[in-house]
Amino acid sequence: MNEPGARRGASEAASDAGGAPFIEARLLPVLRETTLLPLWLVVAGHIIAFVVPTLLLAIRDRRFAAQAALLLLLFLSGSAVRLEIRQRGGVGLVSGLVLALWVASIIVALVAHHTGIF
Question: Does the predicted TM-score (pTM) go above 0.90?
Fold first, then answer.
């Protein structure tokens, strides 16, 4: 049943959901690949470029859609950290990256607000 396009069985889906550590098996090898560093820097820049206006519109301008988007981003960030803690037994690279992206986004948002860029 390993044909392309074949449906996965319930046991395979269950092993991906709780048994097989997604972070250890699939995500960390890609994050630790040094040749992909330029790609990860571009991805981080795009994430920050999305989060900064969302932060400013949600907090400064009190726009409902931005507040909803910010809550969704916080929920997804918390879910990623919870998943890593559950699978690895503690915080690690993914949690550090999530924290670093949030800190960088807050710093850039403060700079953008105080300089009048946004």
Answer: no
